[in-house]
Amino acid sequence: MRNNRIETIALELASSCNLSCSYCDNQYRQSKKSERALEFMPVDMIDFIISETMEFEVKPSITLSYEGESTLHPNFELILEKFHSNNFNTWLSTNAVNTSLSLLKLLEKKCSHTCISVHNYSSFEKISLLLKKSDFKNISLSWILDSFDSHSINRWYREFGSALDLSVPIYFWLKARYSSQKIEIMDKKPFEVHLKSRKPCMAPFNYLAILSDGKISPCCITSRYTLKGVDIYDGFENVVNSDEYLYYLNQHKELKLEEYGTCLNCEFWLEGWLGDQEVTLFDRQCLMQGLSIFIDNKK
Asked: Alpha-carbon distance 238 to 4, whole Å?
């Protein structure tokens, strides 16, 4: 596909998850689970996606996760190898509940980057112990905060500061609140200025998510909206040139979102896309310095 605009393709390898994290759109996903034709993305669909993307003028990055837990897929290692052997830049987000040292080493070798989303102390402790057993360069931890303020950071430091001797980066994110009508940022204080004026969300212009049953969502955080007239088996060329998709992009560009309730009531369009607006990112050294300064200031 020449002059392709799609830079990132997310694959929902599994529509199910072994957790019910409050910062995920789990309520909606569970309500629609029975409507999904397939719980796990078929391997032949993976092969079709690879063959299609190999024709892109610029090969897209592949996110091997979306709303479910990808490592639950019975053929997860085979799928990982398929993308690795075809030299794709791959990224995976996982809760790593059922992980092992051997799986982490496989991800280190076969996946461009793996982000482990930590959901409680026991999982944090388990993952920390595994990560200390080898030198991982392509794995990071992600921690979700209720609010990005002195209280939440200080609490994190008190409860989880023992992990500061890890060699992997630690990312901090603000929690989202998903309701039937809105997708909101839990702590609006860092974003008050941005929320005063709506800007076009850029995710639909360079991002597509493919669900386990082949449906397509142009949204980077939820499958609440999917294209109705096309699916992955129509091919990327037909998808991105379909009247439905082009109309959707135009409505976003002009901020005419009334017919897209999920988009209209979503706060994650900040600065074009939240992917460019992380609350903060600490590597090990920066995290230690930042918390040390904060603690000193409290004396």
From this structure: 12
Total-model pTM = 0.86
Q: Classify residue 5 by its DSSP letter.
A: -
Our separate counts of H helices and E strands in the chain read 12, 11
State pLDDT tens for residues 261-294: 989 998 888 654 444 444 333 333 334 344 433 3
For 139, left (φ over 0), alpha (ψ -120 to 50), or beta? Answer: beta
Residues 6+ away with beta carbon under 8 Å from 42: none
- Residues in contact with 187: Cβ distance below 8 Å, sequence separation at least 6, in sequence order: 145, 146, 147, 148, 149, 174, 175
Residue with tokens 């397939």: 38
Nearest 5 degrees, angle CA 286-CA 291-CA 294?
Answer: 130
Q: What angle do CA 68, 71, 77 make, to 5 degrees?
A: 140
pLDDT (tens digit per residue) in 195-246: 778 888 888 999 999 999 999 999 988 999 999 999 999 999 999 999 999 9
**Which of 259, 278, 263, 41 has the alpha carbon at shortest distance from 142?**
278
pLDDT digits (tens, 9 = 90+) for 109-157: 999 999 998 877 778 888 888 998 999 999 988 877 666 555 666 666 6
User: What is the 8-class DSSP label of residue 19?
Assistant: -
Please answer whether residues 211 and 223 qualify as being in contact, where contact means their C-beta atoms are separated by less than 8 angstroms. yes
**Residue that has been written with the tokens 């998808």 in this structure:** 239
- Other Cβ atoms closer than 10 A to 151: 11
Residue 50: exposure state from Cβ atoms within 10 A (0-12, 13-18, ≥19): middle
